[in-house]
Amino acid sequence: MPIVSVRGLTREYQQGAVTVKALRGVDLDIESGEFTALMGPSGSGKTTLLNLIGALDEPTAGTVTVGGQDLTKLSRGQLSDLRLNQLGFIFQAYNLIPVLSAYENAEFVLMLRGVPAEERRRRVMQTLADVGLAGLENRRPNELSGGQQQQVAVARAIAGKPSLVLADEPTANLDSKTSHGLIELMAELNRTHGVTFVFATHDPRVMDAARRVVRMVDGQIAEDERK
Amino acid sequence: MVFARLVRLAYRNLGRNRRRTVLTVAAIAFGLTMVQLMIGIQEGSYAEMTRQAVSAFSGHVVVQEQGYAEREDSDIVVTGTSAVVDRIRQAVPDAIVAPRLMLGGLLTSPHGSAGVALVGLDPVAEAEVQHLDEKVVEGEWLSGDGRSVVLGEELARTLGVELGDKVVYMGQHNGATEVSSRLFRVAGTFRTGATELDAFGAFVDLAAAQEAFGQPDVSNRVTVHLKDPDTADAVAATLKDRLGDRSDLAVLTWREAMPELYALIRLDRSTGNVMLVILGLIVAMGVLNTVLMSVLERTREFGVMLSIGLKPTGLAATILLEGVTIGVLGAVIGTGVGLLATWPLVVHGLDYSGFIGSDTMETGGVAISAVIHAAFEPTRTATYALGTIFFTALAAVYPASYVARLEPVDAMRHV
To answer: What is the pLDDT of residue A149?
Structure first.
């Protein structure tokens, strides 16, 4: 059974008197362990699709099933639980909590899940080491470079061992060297830990690393290529 | 565990814009300091008014004839007053018992005449409870000779009399058909600051007033002055029991005997409370502004927190915690500083004499000292401190409900 199953997914936005159709009946299945890139020009619907898969937005029509659960039938609280327990998010602008240290940001999800302190500490320290941030645990986001902040965001996304990580333009604000390192890191996590990644990206380096590339145009899937 | 982390998050958020937090807490603390000062002065003036009214009129407990409270007719008297006084002294040995007989009549002198309230009293007891001897501005206080009268300063001026002059009291009392008269010699004049008393009051020995009344051993009121005013209710209950055989007598506490004064204080306190609640609402609006600004600035951040699984209720709790923390800090600092600022006014008092040009001032028909000593009132102090926390928490409810309704994707688009 695919970890993500999207059927007839439509999302319309109202901008004044104009109805913008961001997604127009998208069908998509993503299997567990895939490393998928959603490619396409701006406005093609990549981020909208990612938000709908991540239970951050509600579709106008169609269904999204994640881990066997139809998101359109879940309450706000159940959607929060799903995001907390099954999903990890990486955003373009890092979106770390500025008053928390790198360690506390990475720990936040585990803390919300109620993981015991000792177990939490062990997992967070290991994850931060995995993403290359050993020794920087106590720094706050404003004391880290852009690349390091995104590494913290990756650590936060994977520390809870989610079944699916959704990354929206994760390399857009990074220089090429940092981007390369981050892509390598996520590919490594995919290979070694079997974490499923779905990216929305313009970055050809991500496309090169991805084992599946879904091209979107005008809110529809134009091409779905498996390498 | 989650709650502890949310508390830490709330505290760190408050530290994020330290200047804004400090200013908000300072505004609340300053407002509450002023409120506590005002409460102290207000309660001090009530205490002074009560003290003066109690000593001048009813005592903490008063024994009087049934019906006197309603009509205040000088013909309604406690017969066998000395026996009543003795029984009260036995029941409450450390109280001062002061019987009073108040007669309305005419006082004449060779130079004029004036209406007068002739008050017969025990000079020794009244010197202790009312300190009337200290209010004598010319001459001396009553010596118990039965012939002397001490006149209000204004009354003496009206009558055109000086020390040693003779005045004649004329009145019709005790159901008499004819006017009786009695001669007094002016022993002194007094000034209390209470307009009516200074213009119409005259003090004589109780026995002399009884003679003018035409019946010995009577009084209108037997006032009982206690060392601890808070025991008034208990003492009244005891006296009701001890004087149970005198069904003609009524035993009242000062609140029952002077309902107007008690109501006046309650009304004034209520008015003050309304003003303070308005002040509280203004403070709350300030807090609302601060918390809302801080929330709107962080909308994107809240979107991220929601997206990684924090429940909307957890987010709302964080905002409420921030508001409550601001309120608690403001309340603790404001109350502490307020009490410290009130302390010198408790000890040394606040001197209004420079403003009013007199050592006394009249309020609620009672002359009180122009130096008002503030008083601590723990219940009101605590109420306003807790009220401040309540209002600041209330001010945080709207921002908290705002974040609870946020949709992650909309919040993250917020700039």
So the answer is: 92
Q: Over the stretch A175-199, which tens digit does the pLDDT of each residue have?
A: 888 788 888 888 888 888 888 999 9
Count Cβ atoms below 10 Å from residue B99 Cβ, excluding itself: 24
Nearest to A189, CA basis, from A112, A138, A126, A106 = A126
CB B137 within 8 A of CB B189: yes
Residue A156 exposed, middle or buried by CB count within 10 Å (0-12, 13-18, 19+): buried
Would you give the distance in Å from CA B179 to the centre of its chain?
A: 41
Indicate the burial class of A97 (C-beta count within 10 angstroms; 0-12, 13-18, 19 or more). Answer: buried
First-to-final CA distance of chain A: 21
| Count of other CB atoms within 10 angstroms of residue A116 | 10
Q: Which residue in B9, B312, B408 is closest to A56 by CB distance?
A: B408
Please name the residue of chain B whose CA is at the shortest distance from the CA of residue A160.
Answer: B308
Instruction: Residue A117: list chain B partners with CB under 8 A.
Output: 1
A75 part of contact set with chain B, CB < 8 Å: no
Q: How far apart are CA B139 and CA B141, in angstroms?
A: 7
Give the CA count within 13 Å in the CB-facing half-sphere of B9: 25
Per-residue pLDDT at A91: 86
Contact A39, A215 (CB under 8 A): yes
Task: Determine contact, residues B91/B61, Cβ cutoff 8 Å.
Answer: no
**ipTM field:** 0.86
Asked if A167 contacts A186 with a C-beta cutoff of 8 angstroms, the reply is: yes
Interchain proximity B412–A85, CB inside 8 Å: no
Distance CA(A113)–CA(B292), nearest Å, equals 29
Helical residues (DSSP H) of B74-183, grouped into ranges: 81-91, 123-129, 153-159
Beta-carbon contacts of residue B102 (< 8 Å; ≥ 6 apart): B74, B117, B118, B119, B120, B220, B221
Distance of CA B304 to the CA centre of its chain: 56
The reply to whether residue A95 touches residue B301, judged by beta carbons under 8 angstroms, is yes
Residue in A80, A84, A99 closest to B9 by CB = A99
Instruction: Dump strand ranges (E) for chain A.
Output: 4-15, 18-30, 35-39, 61-66, 69-70, 87-90, 164-168, 196-200, 212-217, 220-226
Please name which of B260, B253, B254 lies closest in space to residue B237, comparing C-alpha atoms: B253
Decide the pairing of beta strands B201-205 and B112-121: parallel
* For B309, nearest residue in chain A (alpha carbons): A84
Contacts of A143 (CB under 8 A, 6+ apart): none
Q: What is the pLDDT of residues B325-361, one digit of tens each?
A: 999 999 999 999 999 999 999 999 888 878 877 777 7
Enumerate the residues of chain B whose CB falls inside 8 A of the CB of residue A57: 407-409
What DSSP state is assigned to residue B55?
I
Q: What is the pTM of this model?
A: 0.72
